[in-house]
Amino acid sequence: MRVVKAIVGAAALCLVAMPWPAGASATQFTTPVQLNGAGGGEPTIVADSLGDVYVVGPQGIPSGLNSQPGVGFWASRDDGTTFGSAQHIGSFAGGGDSDAVITPNNDLYVGDLEAVATAVCKSTDRGKTFTSIGPIPDPGNCSMLPTGQVGPSDDRPWLTPDRQGHLYLTYHEFVSAQPLVFRSDNGGGDLFTAGPCGSIVTDPTIEANIPQDVTGGTLVSKPVTDSAGNLYVMFTTTTQQENAAAALAGKPSGTFSQIYLAVSKDNCQSFTDYTVYDGATTNGTNTVQFGDIFNALAIDGAGDLYSIAAGYVGSKAFDNVAKLYLFSSTDHGVHWTGPTELGQAGAKMMPAAVAGTQAGQLAIGYFRTVNGVTDPNNTTAKWTYSTAETRNATIAHPSFTYADVRPGFVYHTGEICNEGILCGLVPGGPSDRSLADFTSAALARNGCPLFSFAGNPAGVTAGTFNFATRQTSNCFATATVRRISNTPSTTTASKARTTSPSLAGTGMSAVIPATGLALLSLMLLSIRMTGRRGSPK
Predict the structure, then answer these.
(1) Domains detected in the chain
(2) What is the residue-wise DSSP string for 195-224?
(3) Is the pLDDT higher at 247 or at 108?
(4) How many CB atoms lie under 10 A from the CB of residue 79?
(5) Closest to 126 measured CA to CA, from 72, 46, 186
(6) At CA 221, angle to CA 218 and CA 227, rounded to 5?
(7) In the 3-class helix/strand/coil scheme, how is 22-46 assigned residue by residue?
(8) What CA–CA distance (Å, rounded) separates 513 from 496?
(9) Which tens digit of pLDDT belongs to each residue from 410-425?
């Protein structure tokens, strides 16, 4: 997505999305590489314009108990064909979550969740060395307790760059359950204190839905930006009414039936909220679930948006099936088409998505059962990693081509718990969270999708590893060929409003000192209130 060429003026050239090439062979992939030297679980994969591919993965919080920083880091110099053994970077107080991004000038940033904050590391030499962001020197070179501490009281932090030189940190705040965003204007040197960033949730009706207690919260997907610098933040939530009904049914929380998109066209100073799908109103209380577990947001070179949601859309409350759905928008998130269910048989979990540089190009990766099991918490389920790809993702009924990255190979046997941090805590409930909460996708410099996912093909007790693979046939063309408007429409949805910084009134500042982080992290973990879908390990 970040390899699209810059366009002068308010528009870019456009063409109708292309179908699959006539007579094309089956989609093929490199044999997924097992990434060694560090543990596996919810890997993030990114690629630059030089042929480098990087994967990061959290190592468990606080990772200092294992005498190492919190992020496993793997580098490939041949477009993801081979990878070296892991390097460990980040914070001894980290390991809860990780993320990585590459800016347009090929600088690499890695985030390491400490719960009380996120330690952010930066490399300007293609991942060979790292240093902490911010004005204070980091003698440990992002290997002990980095000085670049940002994002107070955070959970599942995401980093997002734009082409105008901004870098965003977005996450779910521990106590309030609100999605928050901070901005840097100089590559992290200001410790993400630029702004202020306004409240993401600006629609009172949407705000009223967000539970602010231990039973609920918000699932914040990794945000995206477009060529004009507009920021898109997607979040999913249950409702207060669904939580109340869940309590009566003996469930830990209501289903996550609501998908919203917050759009900022002024560098996060204000947001406008749009509804991607209102499952509670459309289908009924607790009959729609989009919490299995992190949903994916992607944007193509034409500015078209894609939401991939994991769960079910039905009429039965608290159903025990796992499906995937596509929503698409061609007007910057104002209106959405969908849901369109992906057609492969079996349960499907943990979607990842990457869009191409042309309109309609979309690749989706996910775990899928190959033995007919549809309940993700069935202990007999056998899971492989599959893909669905299309060149016409914006139409009502896209045509998909399906393929497994390694046909016939089982990467996980047993349940994939979709209860987040409550896995193993509910009597009689699912407990296997060995794959953590998501998989990831990126686009190589030649337009070929890359996927990374965790797996334990030899069994959970033998260890969980991260894997990476690159598509080798039917890749996306890389030329930008569509004319788009660079300003989101505001014809519908709630009005945006500019507010004070998102943490106003909480007594927290945007910058967290390194002193005492390990102790404070443990305290926060002991009282965490993110609900069933939180992700620290």
Answers:
(1) 33-526 (2.120.10.30)
(2) SPPPPS---HHHHHHS--STT--EEEPPPE
(3) 108
(4) 18
(5) 46
(6) 135
(7) CCCCCCCECCCEEECCCCCCCCEEE
(8) 33
(9) 999 999 987 766 777 7
CB atoms within 10 A of CB 499: 16
Place of tokens 């020197």: 137
The CA–CA distances, whole Å, from 403 to 328, 344, 352, 400 equal 22, 10, 15, 10
How does pLDDT run across 170-224, given as a tens digit for each residue? 998 888 888 999 999 999 999 999 988 999 999 999 998 887 655 557 899 999 9
| 477: DSSP letter | P
Interatomic CA distance for residues 299 and 160, integer angstroms: 13
Q: pLDDT confidence of 505, banded at 50, 70, 90?
A: very low
**How much is the pTM?**
0.88
Which tokens hold the place of 405? 């990255």
pLDDT tens digits, 49-101: 999 999 999 999 999 998 999 999 999 999 999 999 999 999 999 999 999 99
Are 12 and 227 in contact, with CB atoms under 8 Å apart? yes
| CA angle 526–530–533, rounded 5-degree value | 115
Residue 443 has pLDDT above 50, yes or no: yes
